[in-house]
């Protein structure tokens, strides 16, 4: 089961009950993610960051009605980013879809390492959107690819794309 820890801002939009998280199991690969809602170019955007690899993907120009089917929005965004980063082929997509069959949304776990990385990613994303002339001139997968090709201090200056490649190879 996949756990997505939502920032306070995102949890408020989703109207998640504000209760403490009971059991947090992040030992299994590809299981735990953090999600954050931010605005760029006066539009709502979502960023999802994998807790151990810091691999990220972004969804731009999100409407509240889009969030009704968040699990499929999540898996489609994740698989599209993996394909853009050339980490999976079509035959591996079925394995991932089976692995991501159940998604649970939880309130934030306040993981400082991940939250700091999210803040950095959001800053870089807003900059890329501005440089490209606005949100409608941007490709979310291209932004995600650039972010995943950036070394991150929280993972000892490793590249998130390389760490995710290792996780996916362990899945097969």
Protein architecture, described:
By secondary structure, the protein is of the alpha/beta class. The protein has a single domain, classed as Nucleotidyltransferase, domain 5 (2-Layer Sandwich). The protein is built from six helices and five strands. The protein has helices spanning 8-14, 70-84, 90-99, 112-131, 140-148, 160-171; strands spanning 2-6, 32-40, 43-50, 56-59, 103-107. It has a five-stranded mixed β-sheet with strand order 4-3-2-1-5, with helices on both faces. Strand 2 (32-40) and strand 3 (43-50) form a beta hairpin. Helix 2 (70-84) packs across helix 5. The radius of gyration is 15 Å and the shape is globular. The two termini are 17 Å apart. 29% of the residues are buried. The mean pLDDT is 91.
Keywords, separated by commas or semicolons:
172 residues, alpha/beta, Nucleotidyltransferase, domain 5, 5-stranded mixed sheet, 6 helices, 5 strands, 42% helix, globular, DUF6933, DUF6933 domain-containing protein
Brief digest:
The chain is built from 6 helices and 5 strands, in the order E-H-E-E-E-H-H-E-H-H-H. It is of the alpha/beta class and 172 residues long. A 5-stranded mixed beta sheet has the order 4-3-2-1-5, with helices on both faces.
The CATH class turns out to be Alpha Beta
- Enumerate the spans where pLDDT stays under 50 for 5 or more consecutive residues: none
Number of strand elements: 5
**Overall tally of domains:** 1
Structural class call reads alpha/beta
Order the strands across the largest sheet as they lie in space.
4-3-2-1-5
Whole-number mean pLDDT: 91
Return Rg in Å: 15 Å
Indicate the percent of residues in helices. 40-55%
- Strand % is 15-25%
CATH structural architecture: 2-Layer Sandwich
Rough shape? globular
Q: Helix and strand string, N-terminal first?
A: EHEEEHHEHHH
């Amino acid at each position: 089961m996949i756990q997505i820890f939502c920032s306070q801002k995102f949890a408020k939009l989703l109207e998640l009950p504000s209760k403490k998280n009971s059991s947090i199991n992040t030992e299994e690969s590809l299981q735990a993610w953090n999600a954050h809602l931010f605005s760029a170019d006066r539009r709502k955007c979502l960023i999802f960051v994998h807790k151990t690899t810091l691999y990220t993907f972004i969804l731009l120009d999100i409407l509240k009605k889009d969030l009704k089917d968040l699990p499929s929005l999540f898996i489609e965004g994740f698989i599209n980013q993996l394909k853009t980063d050339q980490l999976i082929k079509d035959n591996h997509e079925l394995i991932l879809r089976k692995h991501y069959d159940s998604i649970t949304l939880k309130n934030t776990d306040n993981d400082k390492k991940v939250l700091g990385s999210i803040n950095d990613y959001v800053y870089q994303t807003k900059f890329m959107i501005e440089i490209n002339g606005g949100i409608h001139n941007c490709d979310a997968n291209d932004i995600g690819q650039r972010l995943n090709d950036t070394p991150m201090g929280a993972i000892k200056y490793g590249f998130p794309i390389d760490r995710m490649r290792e996780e996916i190879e362990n899945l097969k």
